[in-house]
UniProtKB/TrEMBL annotation:
This is Chaperone protein DnaK. Residues 399-412 have a biased composition (Polar residues). Residues 393-429 are annotated as: Disordered. Acts as a chaperone. GO terms for molecular function: ATP binding; ATP-dependent protein folding chaperone. Pfam families: HSP70. It comes from Candidatus Fusicatenibacter intestinigallinarum. Belongs to the heat shock protein 70 family.
Amino acid sequence: MKTKETVCALGCDIGNGYGFVSYLTDVKQDPMAMLPAQYELSAGMPTAAYITPPEGSPIEVFSSEKGSAEKLIARKPENGMYAVKTRLRERYVTMKNMKQPVSVGSVYAAIARDLLILANEELANRSLPELYDIVLTFPASFSDDLELLNYMTQSIEKLKINGHSVKVVGRLPEPAAVAIDYLYYMQNVAPESIRLKEDHFTVLVYDLGHGTFDVALVTANDREEAYQVIAKDGIPDVGGKDFDEILYQEICRLLKDKFDYVPANARDRESLRREAVRVKHELTDNHESYISPLIGNDRIEEIVITRSRFEELIQYKLVQTLELTQQMMNMYAGKRKIDAVVLSGGASRMPVVKQMLEKIADGIPVMLYRPSEAVSFGAARYAKGIWKEIRAGEKSGKKQPSSLSVSRNPVQKNKLDGRRSETGNDYRSSNRQLEQFTEYRYGIFQEVQGNLKGIVNFVLNQGVKLPAATEKFCLRSPSSRLQIKVYRSVGKQCKVNQALPDDCVSIRWFQFDVPENQECNVLFTVEEDYNITVQCTLPDGSTLYRSTADVIDSVQKQEENA
């Protein structure tokens, strides 16, 4: 006999500048920040990493004894790595004084490790049990890159902390997490005077972080229903680090023009970069900031940077974010009323961001909301929407091998029982906190007589609630190997039923061992974590499963063994 219980997991936001982790015990209240007070990490844990030469190990981020790795980086800047998520696609980077290239996934995992160590220290402070399951958040612009998402997940799941394995039980886009936290807070937790009274409420989330920009449209339809992600998008290379670099270049220009000074080495350059970060933060609350760097023989000179000059310098970057925001607003103009624009992410604190958004919002309220905590808080609440099956004889709350139940969209005719893939990955149910939908059309490749390129037949539409399963279709292979090639449309507004493979995005080729010249029933599912699961039922009734997560894990292992 099986029963269900919700998953206990931490909400984990591994940011490019700061990381935050939280835990929800009472669904009627806010999640709790899991960063011990004695470390004074109200803005989050700094995520700059120091990679120790020459072996590249240990990777230091934060510890109770040493504090932030930024102190080490100040002494040896060439061994530091900032904004790690912006470098994940590189996989490996060459760094000075290292014997071999450094795995970016290992650096990303080290940040997660230190966040979880802090979280479990705080759990102990609160007399709560240890917890190593997490809901992971990611930039919206990563949604289309399955290999990248699974690389992030699998890098973290290699961790062992205090003898415990780390498990990513769910993942969701960062702006969607912000919306979950904001909407729930405003509907249920906020003071009565500002609490939302209407059931239907749509927010546009503008999330400008340290390394990436995200925008999403999320709707609350009814207090008893899950929130719905209507649209999401992002820019993977615009954020606070760009503003830091722009300020650094301006400081260097002023020092050169006024004092003919150029930083002579990496340590001096790092010192000026830190000044640039300080100036950026200071200009959030002040109209000017002063810099007094050490120049020459202990001579200190002063330069000033005004907020207006800073805003002038970064305007072209901010315009990119506004154009994407305006595009989303225009797309849904007349279709869906936007009730509020919610700012999140550290870089959204800059006054110019709100000012520029108010110009295009056409009277819609624009408000800054928990720029440090909202992503993590939303992820912690999302965790409460994940079901876990408990088999007879298991104790609730005790970690046991289990699979997450699968609940399909009612409009889909095929329902699958809870199951595990050959590599043991769990298949997740539809989340009770947040509903997401297919953004593309998905199809399979089929050979066409007289057409060497073949054709992609789309079998799953846009706008279907995740997890979304296709109808069953029959395939026959002339050999003992059946290859199923899954594609998706390039654009999000695809209207055709067929397309040439060159006009589609190839996701994966899945291979099954099957009887020759016999029909097999096949369907595939787009899961909530964006993985693709393919189910192949053989003539004898047995069923095989393949997943993009399995394939990517296999490829990653081959890379590591090479």
